[in-house]
Amino acid sequence: MHQIKIEAPTEAVYRALWAADLGVSPVIKGLLGLRSLPEFVLHPRRPHFRDQKVTLQKLIDSGFGRLAEEPGREIVLGVAGRFWRPTGNILPFCEENFSGPVAAGLARAVWNFAVQYVGASSSILSTETRVVCGDPASRLKFRAYWLVVGHFSGLIRRLMLNSVKQMCEGK
């Protein structure tokens, strides 16, 4: 879990979460570009969206599904696939992938953003990701993948939270 204190009311933080460019950081752009490199090399003629804003809606449009939302407080996104593969690693969103056991050969990730009231003009914005694998072989592949990308993924999430903070506090 990652969190950041923001000097703004919860309603303003939640609105900023939806409006902020979560990928504005050059570090995030570089890491996302590195992650998409195998797809670019294998399919150079396909359109790539390197220079677009990364918003929550853009994440939803690109394969993360909205699993739940408590407006003004929390959004929960989900994605399923074989995250450890260099290409073709995300399945098109389907709610059935999030009910019942995870199929063998797949992993399911659930990612939330939550805003917590601290005071009249202070909030805590947090994010947490949980992953479940469908079988021991998938779990082993995911763990190897996570050894490589885990720290970078945490950095991306912290920078995303900071983008919302900067939007709210005008810094």
Shape: globular
Largest sheet: 5 strands, antiparallel
CATH level-3 fold name: Alpha-D-Glucose-1,6-Bisphosphate, Chain A, domain 4
* Strand order, sheet with most strands: 1-5-4-3-2
Count the helices. How many?
4
Give a count of the beta strands, DSSP E runs of length 2 or more: 5
Summarize the helix and strand pattern as letters.
Answer: EHHHEEEEH
Which architecture does the CATH hierarchy give at level 2? Answer: 2-Layer Sandwich
How far do the termini sit from each other?
A: 24 Å
Structural account:
The protein has 171 residues and is of the alpha+beta class. The chain has one domain: 2-Layer Sandwich (Alpha-D-Glucose-1,6-Bisphosphate, Chain A, domain 4). It has helices spanning 10-19, 26-42, 56-61, 136-169; strands at 2-6, 65-70, 74-81, 107-119, 122-133. The chain has a five-stranded antiparallel β-sheet.
List keywords for this structure.
alpha+beta, globular, about 170 residues, Alpha-D-Glucose-1,6-Bisphosphate, Chain A, domain 4
Quick take:
Helices cover 39% and strands 26% of the residues. It contains 4 helices and 5 strands. Helix 1 (10-19) crosses helix 4.
Question: How do the strands and helices of this protein lay out in sequence?
Answer:
Layout lengths: L1 E5 L3 H10 L6 H17 L13 H6 L3 E6 L3 E8 L25 E13 L2 E12 L2 H34 L2
Antiparallel strand pairs: 1-5, 2-3, 3-4, 4-5
